[in-house]
Amino acid sequence: QQRSTPISRLSQDAYLRRLASTLAVLEQRDGKLNPSSLASITAAQKLGGSIHGFLAGANAQPAAAEAAKVPGLEKVIYVDNASYDKGLPENYAPLLLENIKKGSYTHVIAGHSAFGKNLLPRVAALLDVQQISDITDIEGEDTFIRPIYAGNAILTVQSTDATKVITVRGTAFQNTTSEGGSAALEEGVDPKAESTTTWVSEDLAKSDRPELATAERVVSGGRGLKSKEEFDRVIPPLADALGAAIGASRAAVDSGFADNSLQVGQTGKNVAPQLYLCAGISGAIQHLAGMKDSKVIAAINKDADAPIFQVADVGLVGDLFEKVPELTEKVKSS
Ligand code: FAD
Question: ipTM of the predicted structure?
Fold first, then answer.
């Protein structure tokens, strides 16, 4: 009698696990799969059950063929239609809804990127379920972990919704393998829903450096850099010497030292590189929210009491205008 509860719970878990089926919503640009969107597959693998990938756009098939090689996917569903090319949520949400209904998925997962954040709340509303945002861990099929208050508290969310619609933090579900799988390709349903929204244009920052959100190393500058000229003189040479992406604090972005797309933190990007090296950044909680999961944090600040030193693994108290060029020369000659 005493053992009946755990055993029946165990078999119920096993039963649910078999029924779990996840649609991992992937991103593509010009027919190329966006590797950072593979985090949704890593998260789906943690849930167990069957996993289907989903892609749409003018040239979705080549990206779908790339996705088919990612281990863990049973099938990749794609829709070739230019209306979905830029992931406009007004056009994409009815498309995704039809494909979710067709597959009767228990979970729909996308990255917590601009695309996922735009799209999934709409899809959740259309399904009349709760959106679960920016999760960093999965405890079970209905229980998820997410940071709140800029990462100062961790929330455990339990959902009773029939379909769980989830965005995942990329740095918490990094995907390391994109070869070895052989998923089937299948054309999805295209409702060709009418939309009053059309894509006009985009202005993308171009850079040959690694992408900030997925870079192995990041060199960030803050208000301590004093001006855009100084930021550009001091930070890029060290980033180049380390093969790193460039990041910035919000104060540096707001002061015009660095582009918006480089902001790290609560209202910027989340990064978790092997090395996060920052100079002239005080370490406000909103900045820490975006980088404190980095493996090694190194900080240069002239104020020994700056809060950044409380999270830094390596700290250097000194004038960044002296220390950063010195470090750059050392890295170059090593
Ligand atoms: P400061 O706090 O001014 O620090 C500059 C540092 O440079 C100081 O520690 C100083 O000692 C040091 N310094 C100055 N000169 C030198 C020198 N010559 N050599 C060495 N060190 C020097 N911030 C973010 O970064 N990302 C976010 O996403 C973000 N989101 C926010 C969201 C909300 C809702 C709010 C309210 C705030 C947010 N902020 C964010 C802002 C955040 O609170 C801080 O204001 C910001 O991070 C400060 O940037 P900073 O460290 O570059 O500047």
Answer: 0.99
